[in-house]
Amino acid sequence: MPVHMIKLVVGAATIDDLLDWRAAHARAGEPWVLRTRMTPKRADEMVDGGSVYRVFKGVILCRQRILDVNTVGEGVTARCEITLDEQIVRVAPTPRRAFQGWRYLEAKDAPPDLDEAAFGEIPEELARQLREAGAW
User: Fold this and answer.
1) 44 CB contacts (<8 Å, ≥6 apart)?
2) Domain count, the chain
3) What is the domain extent for residue 27?
4) What is the pTM of this model?
């Protein structure tokens, strides 16, 4: 069973903000790489079907499939590079408290993907209001 990662998004309030940042900073043909300080000990489980779930302003809104995990450098200068799939999958908005760095997320605790065929594209502001009202 895959293990996922959960990570806070800093500097982007919405999925569209994240995509705009990616468009502004990506070079042609360059993979989407998430850089972190610590390499996950369970990296093999994460590459085997895991995703990075992204938290925007206290709510998990989307995920990206993990393609590869590599440690770059050695000793105190070592860093982790996680290569992600370009496709962003929206998930059921799920509240999540703030934390530092990243955490493992077991598959049983991961929010389900949104079925856009059944629900259509729900504007993020409407989804936020529905969550606050306790209707979603």
Assistant:
1) none
2) 1
3) 3-132
4) 0.83
Query: How many angstroms separate the Cα of 19 from the Cα of each of 39, 61, 72, 88?
Result: 25, 13, 25, 9
What's the Cα-to-Cα distance from 21 to each of 1, 25, 54, 89, rounded to whole Å?
Answer: 32, 6, 15, 17
Query: Tens digits of per-residue pLDDT, 119-134?
Result: 556 677 777 676 666 5
Q: Which amino acid is at 44?
A: D
- In order, the DSSP letters of 43-112 are HHHHHTT-EEEEEETTEEEEEEEEEEEEEES-GGG-EEEEEE-S--EEEEEEE----SSEEEEEGGGSPP
Distances, alpha carbon 10 to alpha carbons 3, 44, 55, 117, in Å: 23, 26, 9, 30
